[in-house]
Specification:
Length: 230
């Protein structure tokens, strides 16, 4: 059995024996950057601790999968995230499919990890590659409670950029009526522009979402919806 197999089944005794026999704690395992990232992905807390004690690089990165921290955040392994952060994991590192640890936590839909990262000082308005920022991603994903946490921590509800342009437009396209209502109550600009459709009203019309269209009109939204009927 190699260390990758030991990690997959969570056998710390075998992992320890292999390390005692000279296995490199930074050895690449399957599709992961190293054994630590694999252990973080699988949520093997004790093996994560063991690898760190034996010199595993807490910030080693995979071109596609990012770091051990991002892997743990995406897989909702809160205790592993805490261990990695306590061991010096860089939560600001960027790249790969996650962009950064905060986006990985949002993908995992894990409030505890999002809060933990923000408590450690992660920028709540940090830019994402595809989405403008965390609040836009959370709004598009229908993560109401996490969206509220982000705003309570200072996220700019009207920040522009990314795929949808604004959090409100993202919510109109993908997040649902409750998300749209909450964003409007929290100060989202109903006529803020950005993204493919330009405004939330046009996005609602283009998507055929009549209830959202009425909600936005009631909030004094404007926009050229006639082009959506062509």
């Amino acid at each position: 059995m190699d260390i990758g197999a030991a990690i997959r089944i969570g056998n710390i005794q075998v992992a320890k024996a292999l390390l005692d026999e000279g296995t490199d704690p930074n050895v690449k395992v399957d599709q992961f950057a190293n054994a630590l990232q694999a252990a973080a992905w699988w949520g093997r807390e004790e093996i994560v601790k063991l690898l760190l004690e034996r010199g595993a690089d807490v910030n080693a990165r995979h071109n596609r999968l990012g770091s051990a921290l991002e892997a743990a955040a995406d897989q909702r392994n809160a205790e592993v995230v805490k261990i990695l952060l306590d061991s010096g994991a860089d939560f600001n590192a960027q790249g790969g499919i996650y962009d950064n640890a905060l986006k990985a936590a949002l993908r995992g839909r894990e409030e505890e990890i999002v809060t933990m990262l923000l408590d450690r000082g992660m920028d709540v308005n940090k830019q994402f590659v595809e989405y403008g920022n965390a609040i836009q991603f959370a709004s598009a994903s229908g993560l109401r409670r996490i969206t509220e946490i982000l705003m309570d921590r200072g996220a700019d509800v009207n920040a522009q950029g990314g795929k949808y342009g604004t959090a409100l437009i993202a919510a109109v396209e993908r997040g649902g009526e409750e998300m749209v209502e909450m964003l409007l109550e929290r100060g989202a600009g109903v006529n803020a522009q950005g993204g493919e459709y330009g405004t939330a009203l046009v996005a609602a019309a283009a998507s055929g979402k009549i209830r959202l269209l009425k909600m936005l009109l009631g909030a004094h939204a404007t926009g050229n919806v006639l082009r959506c009927l062509c």
